[in-house]
Amino acid sequence: MKYIFGPVNSRRFGISLGIDLSPDIKSCNFDCLYCELEKNTPVDFIQNEPDVQQIITELKQFLSKNRNIDVITITANGEPTLYSKLGLLVEEINKIKGDLKTLILSNASTIYKKEIRNVLKNLDIVKLSLDSVDPDVFKKVDRPSSSVDLNKIVEGIKIFRKEYKSLLVIEVLVVQNVNDSEDNIRKIAQVLKEIKPDRIDLGTVDRPPAYRVKPVSNDKLYKLAQYFDGLNVVVVHRKNEGTPTFKLEEKDILKTLSTRPFSEIDIETLFDDDTKTQFEQLLKQGKIKREKVGNLSFYSTV
Ligand code: SF4
Fold it and tell me: Which residue from 107, 131, 179, 205 has its CB within 8 A of the most atoms of ligand 1, so it is best to mutate?
């Protein structure tokens, strides 16, 4: 198989089968400091574009033997919305996907284009990145091609949210001393409170990055998460870094949840066993509620 990879198991999206639209060479209009692929000069197109039918043939082959997956993920060694035949590909996938979900992982650079939004509307989950709403910080962290315009991206996401009724996830990736200031995160949070995505994934550098940049700690991620009060935020923990566990009384749990919903990952990672039991009791008593957003449950006050 050239274009199909996985499946991989991800807490955030479930068991995912990937479609790579640029397996030969990185094709991206960004050159993010934290990219887990190699450094690149940004390009505004997919190099060596694949043929839709080749991808669909591989997908059919895989699905004929295994349907035990949750989601078909369109991605690329780069930016998948640069693929000129994306509309046709999504159409063909939707004909054969049955009850599987579809997901695209995009850097949001093309979301201002109506034709791209019209294609993405036909997917079950859209994940867009937004690392800053400040043009200088954005340029520093994402190093886009000269054709990319941050204002258009932000406006495009706003329009898309109004048009798109399915699951919209915004990913914010934080790099130490680049876009981790409270000011940067507060500005992103302000914009996202207006957009109201279904979920925000807040993470940091985890795999070896293209440039010599550093992650922020899990503690810092939790501090920054507080700016997104009222929104469903998943703090994407760094592997290999312990996070202290906390013990909370009932009133503290209710107070904590009144600031922002907590994901099941937060609860598993942050709290001791007694506190986890308390969460379950509060749920049974109807004092808090649990809501499924995509593959993850969020707990909040009623
Ligand atoms: S948008 Fe994604 S693929 Fe492109 S440079 Fe950034 S992290 Fe890498």
Answer: 107
Q: How far is the CA of 57 from the centre of ligand 1 (A)?
A: 27
SS3 content of the chain, % helix, strand, coil (to 5): 35, 20, 40
Task: Judge whether 248 lies within some domain.
Answer: no
Q: Looking at residues 44-67, what average pLDDT do you find?
A: 94
Read off the pLDDT band of 241 (50, 70, 90).
Answer: low
Last residue in a domain, options 224, 243, 262: 243
214 inside domain: yes
Residue 93 has pLDDT above 70, yes or no: yes
Half-sphere exposure of 73 (CA within 13 A, CB side): 23
Residue 138 located in a structural domain: yes
Nearest CA to 158 among 203, 103, 119, 117? 117
Both 131 and 267 in one domain: the answer is no
Strand partners, 174: 204
d(CA 92, CA 112): 24
Q: Are residues 61 and 161 in the same domain?
A: yes
CA distance 77 to 92: 21
Distance 35 CA to ligand 1 centre (A): 5
Whether 130 and 109 map to the same domain: the answer is yes
Retrieve residue 190's tokens. Answer: 């302000």
Both 15 and 50 in a single domain? Answer: yes
**pLDDT value at residue 212:** 93
d(CA 174, CA 132) in angstroms, rounded, equals 9
Paired strand residues for 8: 16
